[in-house]
Amino acid sequence: QVQLVESGGGSVQAGGSLRLSCAASGRTFSSFAMGWFRQAPGKEREFVAVISWSGGSTTYVGSVEGRFTISRDRAKNTVYLQMNSLKPEDTAVYYCVADSSPSVIIGGRANYWGQGTQVTVSS
Fold first, then answer.
1. Using only C-alpha atoms, what is the Rg of the chain?
2. Which residue from 56, 60, 31, 46 is spatially nearest to 91, judged by alpha carbons?
3. Predicted confidence (pLDDT) per residue in 45-87, tens digit
4. Cβ contacts of residue 34 below 8 Å, gap of 6+?
């Protein structure tokens, strides 16, 4: 069992920044990949970013490359998504997710989900 608790969502103007946080509990995470999905109204769920706890590698969807950074603090069992240069098209509900495989998360699936946090970017 893995529990994910998210925070940090909000409303910003285009060009602004937000940092989302996801606190994980229930087990150690030395072998779990953590990531972020997002879903805008009327659109399909989209993979955003993933990080491998053991390998330290990261992968991003092309539309956020260079603007978003996923990171983790192992001591706090917390994963972050730093979002810079935000655009209106980034507006969505963002979900923290976890799975044993980064490839599963990249494919838009995950075994564990947070409740989601709204990110709204105004033009």
1. 13
2. 46
3. 999 999 987 667 999 999 999 999 999 987 888 899 999 999 9
4. 22, 24, 50, 51, 53, 70, 72, 79, 96, 97, 98
